[in-house]
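Work Package 3 (structural annotation) set out to generate three-dimensional models for the target panel prioritized at the project kickoff. During this period the team completed the workflow that converts sequence records into discrete structure tokens, so that structures can be stored uniformly alongside our sequence database. As a representative example, we reproduce one entry of 277 residues exactly as it appears in the project archive.
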Amino acid sequence: MDKLVSTEWLAARLDTDDLVILDASLHLPDENRDARAEFAKGHIPGARFLDLGSFVDSDSEVPKAVPTAEQFVARMGELGVAPGSRIVLYDDSAIRSSARAWFLLTRYGESKVAILDGGLGKWRMEGRRLSDRIVTHAPRHRAEAEATRTVRSKAEMLANIDARDWQVADARDAARFQGRPGSGSEGHIPGARNLHFTRLFHEDGTYISPEAIRSEFEQAGIDPERPVVTSCNSGMTASVLLFALGLIGVHDAALYDGSWLEWGADPEAPKESGETR
């Protein structure tokens, strides 16, 4: 199964036994949207609600930290997701939240995970069937999981400012990245490059071509052939950059999960404003 599947592909396989569909929608607080309530009103038939907003390690000092291996196992077990299932993720979110779910699932060893290209918006635009039926599944026993994708800490990111072992790709908009007045941001991690995640999508919410993805990274001053760490505000849209890198064959990029919520809150963390010099 490819990392990216079309609405046509999914529609033809809704009744496939080994296919699991997970709604990974998550909305920004100022949107005043309730992902669970919207799921209950209408979702892709057979989908299960991942509840991405609660899929975090609330015991961590890192804001909105990735869940632990134990928390991952528990959530997948509660949803009745059998190990080795083919999993299709989708969202109806402006921040393309299914990419975050993709990172979490692949971090803990799920190898057959795809994102629905265009998400629920494209599915709905094409007039495809929605359901308000909540399908429950018996819990599944899951074996222990081991993290296989890298998450960088603030300490590692601080050390990297001088070492420059990794390029830092910041997925936020230009105003926040540059620390413009009224943006609510002081700028960015010194040396970071800016690639706003929205540049990776067509107007209909589908991803641009692999060739165009590579070009966007290169134009932002990021060499996909060299080590990359992605960052954003909370670790959400940084995952979009990670997924896009995966589409062009880069599978070892890492996530700075604390991102600007952690970095910006630390008065001792160095900050750079304006465009990257």
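The mean pLDDT is 96.
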